[in-house]
Specification:
single chain; 2-enoyl-CoA Hydratase, Chain A, domain 1; 6-stranded mixed beta sheet; Pdz3 Domain; 19 strands; 454 residues
């Protein structure tokens, strides 16, 4: 068997050596190339060893696919090898309609974390919140899984049930949510009015953007055109997981007339791109405040960060998620592909949001009062995974499904049916972040000297 392995290894070595010498005879002699050859040789040796001696017979293609999954997953949380199914499903979300729970997840501190539930979806109605750590999907632990693996588990046929076990700050034990999958249809932009006077002659636009799909810029332009006398704008980007960069830069270009909006820089100079503002059709006068939280990620961080850096808007709320990397998808073969991180986004000031996020100008915590409650769930990063493992061991299979689901569903349905277009004083006092954003907008109007007048 050793002779057989030696022949296979030698043939692989010669093939790689020949390819390198043909490509560049001089560089092939370098220490760097020698190191590469040693690494390739080691991989081939281990592959042959598994094929010949592993207890179960393994198909070579399956073995290579497993190796690729591990290889990409160990680079960062966003790079991934995509099999035929994952590759086929790649563009589903940007089309605005897909099946599942309506939940956006990411890896944070090495564990599966909810970036944001999408508005008016099964996950949001059930009570899933940004920042929740998904410990189990049905009866499978998520520890050690990749994002793609967890997404595949959560997706399924509409009207089928799924059970999520989550760990949440402020809760002494894990919560279990039973959710029914559905077709997810996204209305990315919704708007309402906040009146500044009793006669309802002076108003502020409240524009909620739930994700940056292909309709955002056109929708916001339409809203502004229909409301030319609006005194100010509150953009609500809370729980907005991101989306298309073109829509983020397009929105910024509506309010910033010069300079850099965002740039991306990578190892390959071809990935380096600078997106600049244009002066045409730009509104530089209307005051803006932006609401963000831990569920604001990617494109929503670019928008809030750029408005902050250019002093074009005041950011209110909580620290954002911190997803500022650029991925490309490269097909490999007919039905598979690789998603690879090739660059990072940089805001106008030159700072990155990757793993840092955007810190609001004004920190305001959610709820009816401007006070952060002490959390019962405070764990250091290096203790987090160990804690979650112990939670898995303690979990009782007879854990009661969270009984808030039915109430939440009912209340949300009623609110959706009402479809209120006006935010009242009572509504404001239920949302400390929104009230703070409005109060700041009023101050900006006073500083501007308009005091609500045209």
């Amino acid at each position: 068997m050793f002779k057989k392995d030696k022949k296979v290894i030698l043939s692989t070595f010669l093939a790689i050596s020949s390819a390198l010498f043909i490509a560049n005879p001089i560089e092939a002699k370098s220490t760097k190339d020698e190191s590469k050859l040693e690494a390739y040789l080691k991989f081939t040796r281990v592959l042959n060893l598994i094929e010949d001696q592993y207890v179960d017979e393994i198909n070579t293609t399956a073995l290579i696919n497993k190796a690729l999954k591990g290889l990409l997953a160990n680079l960062d949380a966003h790079s991934a090898y995509m099999d035929a199914k994952s590759f086929k499903d790649l563009n589903i979300q940007t089309k605005g309609e897909f099946g599942g729970l309506g939940i956006v997840v990411g890896m944070k501190k090495g564990v599966l974390t909810v970036i944001a539930p999408i508005d008016d979806t099964p996950a949001q109605r059930a009570g899933i919140k940004a920042g929740d750590i998904i410990l189990k999907i049905d009866n499978k632990s998520t520890l050690g899984m990749t994002i793609d693996e967890t997404v595949n588990l959560m997706r399924g046929k509409p009207k089928t049930k799924i059970k999520l076990t989550v760990v949440r700050k402020g809760e002494s034990k894990p919560l279990v949510f039973e959710i029914v999958r559905d077709i997810i249809k996204i209305q990315s932009v919704k708007h309402k009015f906040i009146y500044l006077d009793k006669k309802k002659q002076k108003k502020v636009l409240y524009i909620h953007i739930s994700s940056f799909d292909s309709k955002v810029v056109n929708s916001v332009q339409k809203i502004l055109k229909e409301n030319p006398n609006a005194k100010g704008i509150i953009f609500d980007l809370r729980n907005n997981p991101g989306g298309l960069l073109s829509q983020a830069t397009g929105l910024l270009d509506m309010f910033i007339d010069k300079g850099i909006l965002v740039s991306q820089k990578g190892r390959d100079k071809e990935e380096n791109t600078v997106y600049k503002a244009h002066s045409a059709n730009t509104n530089t006068k209307i005051p803006i405040t932006v609401l963000v939280n831990s569920g604001s990620a990617s494109a929503s961080e670019i928008v809030s960060g750029a408005l902050q850096d250019t002093h074009r808007g005041v950011i209110v709320g909580e620290q954002t998620f911190g997803k500022g990397s650029v991925q490309i998808v490269v097909p490999i073969g007919k039905d598979e592909g690789v998603k690879l991180t090739v660059a990072r986004y940089y805001l106008p000031s030159g700072r990155t949001i990757q793993n840092k996020g955007v810190t609001p100008d004004i920190i305001v915590y959610p709820g009816p009062v401007n006070k952060k409650k002490e959390s019962e769930f405070v764990i250091k990063e290096n203790e987090l995974k160990q804690h979650l493992k112990s939670e898995l061991e303690k979990l009782d299979e007879n854990t009661t499904v969270n009984d808030r689901n039915a109430t939440k569903d009912s209340n949300t349905t009623k609110a959706t049916k009402k479809n209120k277009r006006v935010i009242t004083k009572k509504d404001l006092y239920k949302d400390a972040q929104l009230k703070s954003a409005l109060d700041i907008l009023k101050v900006l109007l006073i500083e501007k000297g308009t005091n609500g007048k045209n």
